Amino acid sequence: MRVPLSWLAEYVELVPGTTPEDVHAALVRVGLEEEDVHTFELQGPIVVGEVLEFVEEPQSNGKTIRWCQVRVAPDGEAAADGGDAVHGIVCGARNFFVGDKVVVTLPGAVLPGPFPIAARKTYGHVSDGMIASARELGLGEDHDGILRLSTLGIDAPVGTDAIALLGLDDAAVEINVTPDRGYAFSIRGVAREYAHATGATFRDPVEQSGAVDATLDGFPVEIRDEAPIRGRVGSAVFATRIVRGVDPTRPTPPWMVARLKLAGIRSLSVLVDITNYVMLELGQPIHGYDLDRLRGGIVVRRATPGEKLTTLDGKERTLHVEDLVVTDDRGPIGLGGVMGGAETEMDDSTRNVLIEAANWDPVSIARTARRHKLPSEAAKRYERGVDPEIAASAVSRVAQLMADLAGGTADAGGSLIHEAPARGAILLPDGYVSGLIGVEYSDDEVHDALAEVGGAVTRVEGGFEVVPPSWRPDLTGRAELAEEVARLAGYHRIPSVLPVAPPGRGLTRSQRIRRRVADTLAAAGSTEVLSFPFATEAENARFGSAGGSPVASVKLANALDASTALMRRSLLPGLIAAAKRNRSRGLVDVSLFELGTVFLPEVGRIYGSPALPLGDARPSDAELETLQAGIPPQPRHVGVLVVGDVVPKQPGVTAVPAGIIDALDAVREIALAVGAEIEIVQGSHQALHPGRTAELRVGGRTVGFAGELLPAVAEAADLPRVVAVAELDLDAVIALTEPGLEAGQIGTYPAATQDLSLVVAADVPAAAVAAAVREGAGELLEHVQLVDDYRGSGVADGSKSLTFALRFRAADRTLTAAEASEAKLAGAGLAAERVGATLRE
Fold first, then answer.
1. Contact by Cβ (8 Å): 274, 14
2. pLDDT by 10-residue block (mean), the chain, 841 residues
3. What is the 3-state secondary structure (H, E, C) of 85-144?
4. What element of type H or E holds 766?
5. Angle at CA 752, nearest 5°, toward 750 and 754?
6. 808 Cβ partners below 8 Å, 6+ apart?
7. What is the pLDDT of residues 683-740, one digit of tens each?
């Protein structure tokens, strides 16, 4: 919001000499953020001049210039630049006449740009200044000719300072208005806030406007909302006023043009400028209709399917059934609270005007503005909340200005529908504000602050009852009232104290383990990423289900992207997208991991929990369990993706590409960080390569998978054929792992090592053989490692030879070779029993 200082000074006292920086500092004290300062960037001397004579001189380039004699100072006085009273000036415009008063920029002046003015030789003359157009002065976009003061209704003496005359010496402060403080989108609201900050006297502009009679006799209006959103009707207030006999061709006064320009609004015509001016002044958007183009009375309703409306920007829009529309007997003539229609637009032929000021439901307006991509100034105010009590005053203010500036005559009456519900009282208990803010406030301070805000404050037993003012829809509870007390009493009173953490608390076991997992993977060379938790139906089916069939998913009611409207069931789609993005930017060798939640609703189950009453106390454990039971399971997973070379090619070193072994290494790193025993067995997954997929188990329960993506899946993501991935349910791994496991004792006696070669059927997993050997060998076996998988000469077809390196150790003695051999053969015996293994000769 841009606030011209001269306009602000009409409604709150500004001490002489107040600068924009002073105003910004005051507004910051009450919580409004400063943005910028805007001026016309003009520097004098710029004066009123009178055209005494001119000679038209055709040029060789086909252009005709005028060599003008312009009086810029009264007879006998020097000009503002120290020169003669009459200056010779070359001008290319031809829209002025002898005797016209014009704006003359004398040598030494600077126009916006910056564009310095100096005497210079041109077209065979020395032009001693310049006659300015409206655009050159920064007043508008009109550059077809120079600015004639008579067209603005101005007749000032020659030599008068034109900067002050046209209001170009003003400045505007710009502030950032947060969504909860829509009242600050007006001079009225900012003036009130400045008064809060400085103690200056505030003069409410609403009280200076007449009100319209509460009758429907002036113009027939009906509100017919048969499909309210959230039980709220689209419009509860609708006021009109008629002004007859206006002259839309009259010029907008320069003071109004200057203020609108500083406020960021372009001057269009006197009628439109007046409606914009009152909107900025009071915060109440106004719309004007050409009364003679209306057919019958006005009905406010929701649009019907297929209805269309051509808005003021010339675009035909297909309306939605939630859109609020203003209609007459022919149909929609305006998109309520957003933009008017072209059929009833005010133009140069308008003679009679119907002025409308309404109060629209913020939710409806916000949805309509976004649906039709129409972020208008009106919608910006309505969606934040407009004071429902000022509509009648606003139409009266417009009617007054149209009578004064456009020569119209306002009808004595008008129409007003006012069905806005009264604000309810909020109980503010004694001590609540001090307890919440952490500062001791007296009862008088609380009372005075809330009364200054505009609330009706009544002392009751145990506290205050406060009825918030109509212009503050954001004040809905005691916490908001407490914030107002803190704001007006001064934020400087709130101490900066670092809270002391209570003893005996810290991270939970799960939190510590999750951090350890992230640190471990990062230390192993992987990079943590954070991806959006949204997925497509195909991604959820491919990565988040057992068989690749459609699964139950959480669907977003208002998705950012309709193609990814589901919550993810797996972390892999996000990791694949991140890898694709990195490779497209030249990072071809990447190792990524993510820790995040996935969303796993059960098929056929409807989720939801009863609403709990609001209160100041923490919910009980039972209430928290009830809330938790009403949402789908959201376990935390850890996902890993490795693509490219894990060992880059170097002189003397061959590149080593990523593969399943890297995914399994990541799983082992996670197991080490958690302290878990993760069993890796042959598995299958619809998105992974057959034969290169591992199922991950803890305590017999499947907790994830690892392997290589199907080449077709990798190719669809523009990745190499080999992409190693792993994903584990980290919450399940932590839950299945016994906490507080002690580290094993380090052996001090020598180890005995032996190899064991077993022949088994080719389809027997090596892990099953190793497990049998480990169990059969007993406690003397310290470590078993597969070192060779041979298939060929000397081994029967359909079989394979697996060689294991075994390490034996006793805790209390040095083992003999016979003891180690006995344990080895015991392991081989159990493997023979379980999987049909035989010793290889």
1. no
2. 95 93 94 92 91 92 92 89 91 92 94 90 93 87 80 89 91 93 94 94 84 62 78 83 94 91 92 96 95 92 92 92 92 93 93 94 92 91 93 93 93 86 92 92 94 94 94 93 94 86 81 96 96 93 77 87 92 97 94 96 78 70 82 94 93 92 95 92 91 92 95 94 96 89 73 94 90 94 93 92 95 92 95 93 77
3. CEEEEEECCCCCCCCCEEEEECCCCEECCCEECCCEEECCEEECCEECCHHHHCCCCCCC
4. helix 766-777
5. 160
6. 751, 752, 753, 754, 777, 780, 781, 782, 815, 819, 820, 823, 824
7. 899 999 998 999 999 988 999 999 999 999 999 999 999 999 999 999 999 999 988 6
Q: What is the DSSP string of 198-257?
A: H-PPB--GGGGS----S-SSSS-EEEE-SS-BTTB-SEEEEEEEEEES--TTSPPPHHHH
Cβ contacts of 690 within 8 Å, gap of 6 or more:
684
Closest CA to 212 of 415, 23, 351: 415
Amino acid identity at 326? V
Structure token pair of residue 196? 């809060």
CA–CA gap between residue 117 and residue 109 (Å, rounded): 5
Domains observed in the chain: 2-40+170-203 (3.30.56.10), 46-165 (2.40.50.140), 221-418 (3.50.40.10), 426-490 (3.30.56.10), 509-605+620-736 (3.30.930.10), 752-839 (3.30.70.380)
Residues in the chain, total: 841
pTM given for the model:
0.68
Query: Which residues have CB under 8 Å from 755's CB, separation 6+?
Result: 787, 803, 804, 805, 806
What are the helix and strand counts (H, E) for the chain?
22, 41
Under a CB-based contact definition with an 8 Å cutoff, are residues 772 and 834 in contact? yes
Beta-sheet strand order (sheet of 590-597): 527-528, 590-597, 636-643, 723-729, 701-709, 688-698, 679-682
Condensed to tens digits (0 to 9), the pLDDT of residues 346-380 reads 999 999 999 999 999 999 999 999 999 988 999 99
Burial label for 384, CB within 10 Å (0-12, 13-18, 19+), is buried
Integer Cα distance of 98 and 764 in angstroms = 109
Beta strand pairing call for 701-709 and 101-105:
unpaired
Beta strand 527-528 pairing with 590-597:
parallel
**Buried b / exposed e along 147-162 (16+ C-beta atoms within 10 A):** bbbeebebeeebbbbb
For residue 746, give the 3-state DSSP assignment: coil
* 228 upstream amide cis, omega within 30 of 0: no
CA 585/CA 525 separation, integer angstroms: 20
H/E element holding 757?
Answer: strand 752-761
Alpha-carbon dihedral angle through residues 657, 663, 669, 673, given to the nearest 10 degrees? 150
Give the closest residue to 455 by CA, choosing from 435, 482, 437.
Answer: 482
The answer, yes or no, to whether the previous bond of 45 is cis (omega within 30 of 0) is yes
Cα 781 to Cα 58, 341, 755, 787, 822, distances in angstroms: 111, 87, 12, 16, 11
Q: Which long-range contacts (CB under 8 A, 24 or more apart) does 498-504 make?
A: none
pLDDT (0 to 100) of residue 216: 47
The answer to whether 129 and 105 are in contact (CB under 8 A) is yes
* pLDDT tens digits, 743-773: 567 778 999 999 999 999 998 988 899 999 9
Distance CA 119, CA 526 (A): 70
Helix/strand/coil percent split, the chain, to 5:
30, 30, 45
Tokens of 542: 């491919």
Q: Which two tokens stand for residue 449?
A: 């602050």
CA separation for the pair 405, 250 (Å, rounded): 8
For position 227, what pLDDT does the model report?
Answer: 67
The Cα–Cα gap between 826 and 821 comes to 9
**Are the C-beta atoms of residues 553 and 599 closer than 8 Å to each other?**
yes
